[in-house]
Structure formats: C-alpha cells, structure tokens
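tool=predict chain=A
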Amino acid sequence: MERTDKNTVKKAAAPRPDNAHKGTMGTLLSICGSYGMAGAGILSSLAALRCGIGLLKWALPKSIYPIAAARISESVFLPLEENLSGKISARSADFLLAQSADAVLLGCGLSVCDDTRELVESIVRRCEKPMVLDADALNCISQSPDTLKSAKAPVIITPHPAEMARLTGSTAAEVNSDREGTARSFSARFGVITVLKGAGTVIASPEGKILLNTTGNSGMATGGSGDVLAGMCASLLAQGGKPFDCAAAAVYLHGLAGDFTAKRLGKTSMLPSDIIDEIPNAFFECGII
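tool=predict ok
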C-alpha cells in the first residue's frame, strides 16, 4: 500500500499549455440532478469547472434548469424530458449516448426510480467513454452490480461506506472493518477503479494497486462534499489523464482543498461550496498553475 502526495497530482494534471483552447482541454458530459436535488449537480459542476475542464455539458431534468442556470454561467445545459416526479426519463439514453464528450459523470443527485435505473444501466453498458459513477448511479445498480462488468470503457466508482455496502450486500460497519480489502476485492471482481470515501479514502485498481489518501478532515463530513469530489475526478478524467491517476489526484486535491478550508473557516462551519473555493489553492500547492 502506498500513500498519496503532491506527486500523485502531477501524474494526472499539468500546467496548461500556452496554446490551449477549450477544445483541447476536454469535454465533460454530466448527467446529474433531479427535482429536489439540484444542489448536487451544481456542486459537481462547479468543482469540475474549477479543475480546468474545457467544456462542461450538464444534462439535467427540465424542471431544475432555471435553478442551475441561475447558479452556473459557464456550462452548456441539456434540459431533458422528465417523469412526473422530476427525474430524468429513461427515454433520454439514446440522446445522451450520442453526445460528444471525453468523459461522463453520472449520478450526483440523480435519484432512484424505475426511469433512472433503466437510464443508468443503459449508459453503463453502452457508453464508450470513461465514466465516473457516484451516489445514485451506484444506488441504481446496487441490485445488479454485474452491470459494471459490461462497461466498454474504464469506470471509476466513488461510494461512501453505505453505498459500498449496498453494492456488496453487506453493511457499512463491515465495509469499514476492512476498507482496503473491500475496495481491492470489489475492483478486482468488477474491473473498476474504486474510490472508497471516508477518513483515509482508499483508491483501488482492478490490478490490485492500493493508495491511501493523506489529506482531508472531519469538516468535510457533510452532504455535498462527495459531489465536489465526483466533479473533480470527472474533470481530470475528461482532460485525458489515466483513470487511476485521475482518481487519486482528485482525492488528494479534494482533501487538500478541505484542509485549506478548515484553516480558514474551522471544521464546524465549512461547507462543500467553500471547498470548491479552495481548489485553486490546492492546485497552486501542488505546483499546478
């Protein structure tokens, strides 16, 4: 087992070339949000933008488009057909798969229902771009995790212990009793990169490599912090980094930004949106300018 450090970030991120433009810095397709959970999509989108993505396409239910557009000016929005409860309709799958993108983020605030289960399974099985699956994308396939074996491109999953427990048919306590072993075995079995969140986040590859993260603090233990991490990870992935390196770099940067936030505001009062504000300082600290 190895530990993350500043060199972990340099494997996945580099200073921007002087001749860069939005077309060379990657396009991310984010499929996130539902009625009542617009905030998850907003946080992941802002985090992705702060990590340098060239173009962000956010596919979201029509009902939350006004909220999202009022908060984010830098995204291209793809308002989608939704069901009666404000979740993305499964009929949107073909449209989404036809989108031009370098990576896909799926799940933040998506909700779990028949439509989203069908949507997630269809995208995981058919998408040919690397993906980050977070939150409700994982909950949607928790009854059929073998879906992951059908993926045509690299997949990074970012579960917290309860989500990991649903995927493995165990309990959060059992997951936490052997975090490294759980992440390692799941990655090997399903061929995915596992980012098992928590104090000392574990990053595991299908080949058995394990990294233990060294940044972060208890002030990050609040709803929305995981959405920030998912957006950061997907942003780096869309910019062309190797999937395992991107996952590890995002985890380290996320924790480092959280540490800067705790020093500025204290652990009790810090918010996930405050962590996003510190992402630039985390990049600076790692020599990425």
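The beta strands are 2-3, 27-31, 55-61, 76-80, 103-106, 131-133, 155-157, 193-196, 202-204, 210-212. The two ends are 29 Å apart (CA to CA).
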